Amino acid sequence: ERVGYALVGIGKLAEEEILPALEASKRSRLAALVTSDLEDGKRLARRYGLPPEAVYGYDDYDRLADNPGVHAVYIILPNHLHEDYTVRAARMGKHVLCEKPMANSVAEGERMIAACRAAGVKLMIAYRCQYEPHHWAVREMVQQGRLGAVKLVESVHCQVESDPGEWRLKRKEAGGGPLVDIGVYSLNTIRFVLGLEPVEVFAQTYATPDDPRFREVEEQMGWQMRFGNGVLAACLTGYSAFRSSRYRLYAEGGWVGLDPAFDYRGLRLSLGREEGGQQVVEERRFPAPNQFALELDHFARCIQEDLTPFTPGEEGLQDLRLVEALYASARTGRPVRLEAPDKPDAFR
Ligand code: NAD
């Protein structure tokens, strides 16, 4: 039986990416929609072959408990609502796939993990890059040492946020600025491809004075991470430079990276090596299935076969720890040292 998902929060991502991805998936199906706009929900229900009674308002969220076709909820709400909707799903005995960033603080993330553990339901954070073949190719190349030891990493993720009313620019809703929304892709993906955790971080933020968009959150951040084996990573993120998403790892015998890296489609891998005393640059593009469908099907398989997801709650929590350390560093102007996290016995 396919795993039935209730989508909670029908914004841009849910409508444009997740609904089509459910159709493209192999183990997953749409089982319910939870939205503030019931008319719009019914329109989408018709389009995706869902009965109208499977469209719920937020006030009726807890009634999902009585719908046996809903095995999991997928939380696609603004960040400050992730904890509450996760904890309530756990109480209903539903598994939880939750969008990044997991939550707005380490404390919230810990409560989400505890609630899911107590209820015996699975919790996965939607880090789609960890289910995408181009990123896996980089990870394998790096971890098999095919370019020698990695020494340096760089990553940029920026885009323009022009609407001052956007929830992403409100501290209470978003929990932070570009770092938590898009910089988190650099943070998470570098950890994933290296298979290592930072032991020290250092950050600097800036916001243009009097720009109404950046009264509550940073406009941009630059940060550095040092890993235990001496690898240094330098990252940039921002909400006022034209969109760009890339990372590159520099190893003793070559470099490899993606550009674009964090987009929904069209990813491109490039590789630079020495050959006969010259630098050769190669580009690789593979047929890549819809990354959201791969992610949905991974969690569906974990539910069907009782496995721990590859990106469980603890993976989201580790990023929240790093985010708190980065903001602390930016505030104090000092580097922040980190303890190695406890890792669950996950799918990996
Ligand atoms: P959005 O603003 O387009 O949609 C948010 C939805 O939540 C809307 O339907 C809105 O009506 C609803 N909502 C309910 N309560 C709300 C409240 N109090 N304030 C504002 N909206 C409220 O946002 P989005 O871009 O779909 O982002 C939702 C989540 O998905 C965020 O956590 C974001 O980080 C994440 N996201 C992930 C990806 C990805 O590639 N994995 C991409 C975009 C967004």
Give a verbal description of the structure.
- The protein has 348 residues and is of the alpha/beta class.
- It folds into two domains: 3-126 and 292-311, 3-Layer(aba) Sandwich (Rossmann fold), CATH 3.40.50; 130-286, Dihydrodipicolinate Reductase, domain 2, CATH 3.30.360.
- The chain has nine helices and 15 strands.
- Strands 14-13-12-11-7-10-9-8-15 form a nine-stranded mixed beta sheet. Strands 3-2-1-4-5-6 form a six-stranded parallel beta sheet, sandwiched between helices.
- Strand 5, helix 4 and strand 6 form a beta-alpha-beta unit.
- Helix 3 (82-91) runs parallel beside helix 4 (106-119).
- The chain starts with a strand and ends in an 11-residue tail after the last strand.
Question: What's a concise summary of this model?
Answer:
This protein has 348 residues and is of the alpha/beta class. The protein contains nine helices and 15 strands.
Relevant terms:
Dihydrodipicolinate Reductase, domain 2, 2 domains, globular, 348 residues, binds nicotinamide-adenine-dinucleotide, 9 helices, alpha/beta, Rossmann fold, nine-stranded mixed beta sheet, single chain, 33% helix
Q: What small molecules does this complex bind?
A: nicotinamide-adenine-dinucleotide
Number of strands: 15
In total, how many domains does the architecture comprise? 2
The proportion of strand residues reads 25-35%
Instruction: Give the biggest sheet.
Output: 9 strands, mixed
Topology readout:
Layout: E1 3-8, H1 12-24, E2 28-34, H2 38-47, E3 55-56, E4 72-75, H3 82-91, E5 95-98, H4 106-119, E6 123-125, H5 133-143, E7 150-158, H6 171-174, H7 178-194, E8 198-206, E9 220-227, E10 232-238, E11 244-251, E12 254-258, E13 269-275, E14 278-284, H8 291-305, H9 313-332, E15 336-337
Parallel strand pairs: 1-2, 1-4, 2-3, 4-5, 5-6, 7-10
Antiparallel strand pairs: 7-11, 8-9, 8-15, 9-10, 11-12, 12-13, 13-14
The structure holds nicotinamide-adenine-dinucleotide.
Nicotinamide-adenine-dinucleotide binds at residues 9-14, 36, 76-79, 81, 99-100, 126, 128, 167, 181.
